[in-house]
Every structure is written in structure tokens, then in C-alpha cells.
Design goal:
The complex is a heterodimer of chains A (about 130) and B (about 270). Chain A has about 130 residues and is mainly α. Helices cover about 70% and strands about 0% of the residues of chain A. In chain A, helix 1 packs antiparallel against helix 3 and helix 2 crosses helix 3. The longest helix of chain A has about 30 residues. Chain B has about 270 residues and is mostly helical. Chain B has eleven helices and two strands. In chain B, strands 1-2 form a two-stranded antiparallel sheet. In chain B, a hairpin with a 6-residue loop joins strand 1 and strand 2. The longest helix of chain B is centred in the N-terminal third of the chain and has 25 residues. The chains are: A mainly alpha (about 130), B mainly alpha (about 270). At the A-B interface, helix 1, helix 3 and helix 4 of A face helix 1, helix 3, helix 4, strand 1 and helix 9 of B.
């Protein structure tokens, strides 16, 4: 078995690993910042709010709209942290698909990954 | 002071989850229900946190080249569809059913692992045509023995459909269902134990995302509980991952069996008492 990963200079394992790491760390940072800000502002350790039934894209759009209108609040940071966490596996699959397609020209695995991506996208639009 | 408790139980759940390849939900859900969270809400919170645990742990395994990205991707096709079906079933199920189903899944996993415990990993000699076509093979560097272990997977025709079932249980109960994925990798597909636990971590993240979407749309994800749980579980998983690469296969297996047994009994009792 030839190990091409060492030779071609591009390393899908490292890329996937760093996407996962960056997504999780970014998400944790946002959530911690939100909780800390809430603690400083109100003196309460816990934060209370609900996400009324909306799908992921509605949730993301409402967060980004608040961010754009500079309505940054502790709970917005927590929401953005959760949204980033949900995007992490999605971006990981997307990166794998691009890799299988462009770097490996492995159409079999490009098709498998595309299927996973389509089902995930569908699920994020569920209501 | 609930936030501190949510954080502490999540820290423990993340640690055990990373060690065993289970994802942490198996401990988190019983613990959250003890803290007064409704079981459906606990399931929803757990499945979000499972994205965090499995992604955090998988990031290390993938960079260590222990997890197999191709085998993971092939099996994800089955688990995500299963997770959507499972989560949809939970939304219409009763509480008691969820408790008993949770306990039953734990006990079945334990029993299967118990019966299997004297059999070590045997490399697959003859690979079937489909598994060969699917390129289910790889190698990794074992830090305990210092050797490069080459392996091939087999029986993809059985592993795929079984993974649909594992994905369904993951979506249904809000767990990573890593124990079932590991069993399928070990017993059906003939993967070495470390490859099975680490690849299952990779699959779990994507599967949990499919389940999370359903619970988010149903309004079951409470950010006030989710926030401390996510932070705690990632911290625990980080510590667990550091320990895993230094332990031998047999030590992981024994620890894993102990945890499955205790939690299985506990959930079944609670199901019947509820």
C-alpha cells in the first residue's frame, strides 16, 4: 500500500483535523464569552432563553441579522457558538468532497460525500 | 447553581465518551434527567453536545492518522438517514419508552462485547469484492507497540445497513451510539479496535448533526442548558483523548464494558419505575 499523503504535499487528514478543531474551539470561545458577559452584566451564572421552533438556516439568519444591526448581546454569542458548532461537521464533509473531487479525482467518493452533503443540507432546512 | 452541575456532569461525560469512543451522551442523558431536565430535552441537548465531543476528539485522531476518512464517509451515508428517522420517532414517543429503549441499547451492547472479550483482533485475509471496490483499507502507527498496522475492511454489504440502525438509535436516543458503531466495525467489518473507535468518532459528528437539525426545528434545544453542557463535555473529551492514545486496546475494552453495564441496569430500573 503506497502512502501518497506524505508525498503530494496536501494532507486531507490534517485539513479535516484542523477544521474540526477550529470549529469546536471557536464555538466554545463564543459560548464562554457569552456566559461570561452575561455574568458580568447581570451577576447571574446561568443564561435563560429559548429558541422557538425554527430550522437551522432561520436560526443562523436571525443571528447574523442581529450581528449586522450591532445588537450584540450575551445570548447572541451563545447562539452563534451553537450555530458554529452545527456548521463544523457540515464544513468537514464539504472539505472532504472538494478533496476527493479535486485532489484525488476519486469520483466514487465524491459521489458518496455529495450524498451525505445533500442529506445534511435537507435536514438543516427541516421544519 | 444548576449551571455548575450541568458543567460538572458534562465534564465527566466528555471524558468517558472520548476514552470509549461512545461520544458521552450515554452518561450525559441519565445525569441531566437526574438534574430535572425532561428526557426529550436531555436527548436534544445531548445530541448537540455529541457534535462537540466527537469533533474535538476526532480532530486529534484524524491528525494522528488513526481514523479512516474513507470508511467513515461510506458509513455516514447510512447513519445520517438513520438519525433523521430516529429523531422523528423520538418526537412522537412517550418518556417511559425512551428510558427503557436507552437501557436496552446499553445492555445489548454490553452483552455483545462481553461475549466477544477473549477474541483479539485478526487481520482480514480475504476481502470481499464490494469492500475492495469501496477501498476500505488503510494503515496506522500504533503508539503502544511502535509498529505500523495495515488493515483491510470486509463485509461492507452488511456493515452499511447495520450502520443505518446505529444511526437510527443515535437520533432516537441523542447518543453518539459509538458503542454500536464500534461493534459493527470490530465484529462485522474486521477493523482493528483503535481504527474502529476513532473512525466511529468521525461518523458520530455528522450523524449527530442530522439529529440535531430535527430537535432544533422542534424547539427542544434550550441554549441555557446547552451552553454549559457543550463547554463541559469538550473539556472532558480533551482530557480523555490525551489518555486514549497511551492506553492499550484491552484496557479500553474493559473500561468500556464496565461503564455500559452500570448505566444499562440503571436506566432500565428507572424506566420501569417511571
Amino acid at each position: 500500500m503506497k502512502d501518497v499523503r506524505e508525498e503530494d504535499g496536501f494532507d486531507i487528514e490534517a485539513l479535516v483535523g484542523y477544521i474540526l478543531l477550529a470549529g469546536v474551539l471557536g464555538s466554545i470561545t463564543l459560548i464562554l464569552a457569552g456566559l461570561a458577559w452575561h455574568l458580568v452584566r447581570t451577576g447571574e451564572l446561568g443564561i435563560q432563553y429559548g429558541i422557538a421552533g425554527m430550522n437551522f438556516f432561520e436560526f443562523l439568519v436571525s443571528d447574523l441579522r442581529q450581528l449586522a444591526s450591532h445588537a450584540v448581546r450575551p445570548r447572541l454569542l451563545v447562539s452563534l457558538g451553537i450555530a458554529l458548532l452545527m456548521l463544523t461537521p457540515f464544513v468537514r464533509v464539504l472539505a472532504s468532497m472538494i478533496y476527493f473531487m479535486l485532489a484525488e479525482h476519486n469520483w466514487k467518493y465524491t459521489a458518496f460525500t455529495a450524498f451525505v452533503l445533500v442529506v445534511l443540507t435537507y435536514s438543516l432546512f427541516l421544519r | 447553581m444548576h449551571l455548575m452541575w450541568y458543567f460538572l456532569v458534562s465534564l465527566l461525560a466528555g471524558f468517558v465518551g472520548a476514552l470509549s469512543g461512545m461520544g458521552g451522551g450515554i452518561i450525559l442523558i441519565p445525569a441531566l434527567t437526574f438534574l430535572g431536565v425532561d428526557i426529550k430535552e436531555a436527548i436534544a441537548i445531548s445530541i448537540v453536545s455529541v457534535i462537540a465531543t466527537s469533533s474535538g476528539a476526532a480532530s486529534a485522531y484524524v491528525r494522528n492518522r488513526i481514523a479512516n476518512v474513507k470508511i467513515g464517509m461510506f458509513l455516514e451515508m447510512f447513519t445520517i438517514v438513520g438519525a433523521l428517522v430516529g429523531a422523528a420517532i423520538t418526537l412522537v414517543s412517550g418518556q417511559r419508552l425512551l428510558f427503557i429503549a436507552f437501557g436496552a441499547v446499553l445492555m445489548v451492547s454490553w452483552a455483545a462485547l462481553f461475549l466477544q472479550r477473549h477474541v483479539g483482533w485478526q487481520p482480514v485475509v480475504h476481502q470481499d469484492g464490494l469492500s475492495h471496490w469501496l477501498e476500505l483499507e488503510g494503515s496506522y502507527h500504533d503508539q503502544v507497540t511502535g509498529e505500523v498496522v495495515a488493515y483491510r475492511g470486509r463485509r461492507a454489504y452488511l456493515g452499511g445497513p447495520l450502520m443505518f440502525g446505529a444511526g437510527m438509535i443515535a437520533g432516537l436516543l441523542g447518543i453518539g451510539a459509538g458503542e454500536l458503531k464500534v461493534l459493527i466495525h470490530d465484529l462485522v467489518m474486521g477493523l482493528p479496535p483503535k481504527v474502529s473507535t476513532t473512525t466511529s468518532n468521525l461518523i458520530i459528528g455528522v450523524t449527530a448533526l442530522a439529529g440535531t437539525s430535527v430537535y432544533l426545528a422542534a424547539g427542544l434545544i434550550n441554549p441555557g442548558v446547552a451552553a454549559p453542557v457543550i463547554v463541559g463535555i469538550v473539556a472532558g473529551a480533551f482530557i480523555g483523548t490525551r489518555v486514549l492514545v497511551r492506553l492499550s486496546n484491552e484496557a479500553i475494552r474493559r473500561f468500556f464494558m464496565f461503564v455500559l453495564f452500570v448505566l444499562g441496569i440503571q436506566m432500565i430500573i428507572r424506566g420501569f419505575l417511571s
